[in-house]
């Protein structure tokens, strides 16, 4: 259904040139104050795209997002106490 995506945080020195990153993937957010770009690329081409982005003159650093590796399913072993605080 949906392609597996990988997120990258790219620290840049020039924000105008950072708009050119759209040809490598989907630009999600551009921070004007801290000079970084959050973008998503297809996981099967992620390493190739990262190598190409590192070569750009305005890119200072590139970091991979670990959001896909964080556990998002939680289990609660503590009983629900909302009935105790129902009050009225």
Descriptive overview:
The chain is elongated. The chain is α+β, with helices and mostly antiparallel strands. It has two helices and four strands. Helices cover 15% and strands 31% of the residues. The mean pLDDT is 89. A four-stranded antiparallel β-sheet has the order 2-3-1-4, covered by helices on one side. It has one domain: 2-Layer Sandwich (Alpha-Beta Plaits), CATH 3.30.70.80. The chain has helices spanning 15-18, 46-54, and strands spanning 5-12, 26-31, 36-42, 59-64. A hairpin with a 4-residue loop joins strand 2 and strand 3.
Order of helices and strands: EHEEHE
Q: Which fold does the CATH topology refer to? A: Alpha-Beta Plaits
Integer average pLDDT: 89
Using DSSP, what is the number of strands? 4
Characterize the largest beta sheet: strand count, sense, and whether it forms a barrel.
Answer: 4 strands, antiparallel
Q: Note the total helix count.
A: 2
Q: Quote the distance from N terminus to C terminus.
A: 49 Å
CATH class: Alpha Beta
Strand content: 25-35%
Structure class: alpha+beta
Name the helicity range: 10-25%
Whole-number total of structural domains: 1
Shape: elongated
Can you tell me the CATH superfamily?
Answer: Peptidase S8 propeptide/proteinase inhibitor I9
Name the CATH architecture: 2-Layer Sandwich
- Poorly predicted runs: none
Which strand order does the major sheet show?
2-3-1-4
Features:
single chain, 88 residues, alpha+beta, Alpha-Beta Plaits, 4-stranded antiparallel β-sheet, 4 strands, elongated, cytoplasm, DUF2129
